[in-house]
Amino acid sequence: MDNMITRRRFVGMSAATGAAILAGGKIAGSTVRAGLALISPGAATDPAFKIGGDLEVNRLGFGAMRITGEGIWGWPPDRANALKVLKRAVELGVNLIDTADAYGPETSELLIAEALHPYPKGLIIATKGGLTRPGPGNWVPNGHADYLKGCVDKSLKRLRLDRIDLYQLHTVDPKVPMEESLGALKEMQSAGKIRHVGLSNVSPEQIARARKVLPIVSVQNRYNLGDRKSEKAIDYCEKENLGFLPWFPVGGGRSVKSAALDAVSKAHGVTVYQVALAWLLQRSPVMLPIPGTSNIQHLEDNVAAAKLKLTPEEWKTLAG
Ligand SMILES: NC(=O)c1ccc[n+]([C@@H]2O[C@H](COP(=O)([O-])OP(=O)(O)OC[C@H]3O[C@@H](n4cnc5c(N)ncnc54)[C@H](OP(=O)(O)O)[C@@H]3O)[C@@H](O)[C@H]2O)c1
Q1: Closest ligand 1 atom to the C-alpha of 298?
Q2: In sequence order, what are the residues at sequence separation of 6 or more whose Cβ sits closer than 8 angstroms to the Cβ of residue 189?
Q3: pLDDT digits (tens, 9 = 90+) for 172-186
Q4: Which of 37, 74, 144, 156 could form a disulfide with 69 if both were Cys (CB 3.0 to 4.6 A apart)?
């Protein structure tokens, strides 16, 4: 417990202190690192990661899908609260925010700009395109080149940016060769509208194929304690030093459950969600979890998890 910040202690801290925790800075004379045990081959001890070799982010990010309306549709019921959540995330030291044109659609990007523009130095907004939204809870791929180019322009406008730091292809459209979709993003990159390109919902084979078209810096797949189908994709990313953004990192607040998780969280006096996030961070140094929430308390809990240290035994027991 001594090298760990509990939620109660963390919540009372200033924004600068929160940022220092995420960055592994110094607090009250003692170095505060993410304190992560050396378990996976990657020895995930560094609290920061450089996306594409030049965009340094604290590894615990924020997913901005949950600040929209029901079914990831429209405006949130409490818009002022959504703006507060975004501002608080940045105050706490989060400098990687994941979003997509499809969240709302449009409302997530618009809220980010409303809450945070002009953006603080070093804040990385990672958005996505390639999924259309015919209605609430409905997601349909469109990877056609012209459509994607239009998506980039519209995201730039909504986010009030000249260039998007990380633009991710939301999914590979089975009806469109990925070379066409990625060719469009390459064009937008050459035009200076995108800094780096990432992928989402892909296999290692698809990552390798995409890298023949253009440099890829990150992958975003579903991954959490209870759903580990993407192990090979993580191994690939770790080997190639690509960032891996696990979506659904706390299982949507419901599906990550086990007796082991209960026991470990009880032992540390923290929530199961914090343990689930600490476990992810210790899985690989390229792991960049982006938990989503519309609740300030949950946000503070999630950020505090970057400081939680699991023992190698705990990590292995949780891995099952
Ligand atoms: N690439 C893709 O295809 C894809 C797909 C889905 C999501 N994503 C991205 O990944 C991000 C995360 O995924 P996600 O939002 O689906 O899953 P998640 O982060 O695992 O779960 C979010 C849900 O868990 C609850 N929650 C979060 N932290 C909590 C805590 N500390 N205590 C209790 N409940 C908590 C939230 O409810 P409250 O609001 O009540 O806290 C929310 O409903 C998204 O925001 C989005 O940016 C990408």
Answers
A1: 31
A2: 195, 197, 214
A3: 999 999 999 999 999
A4: 74
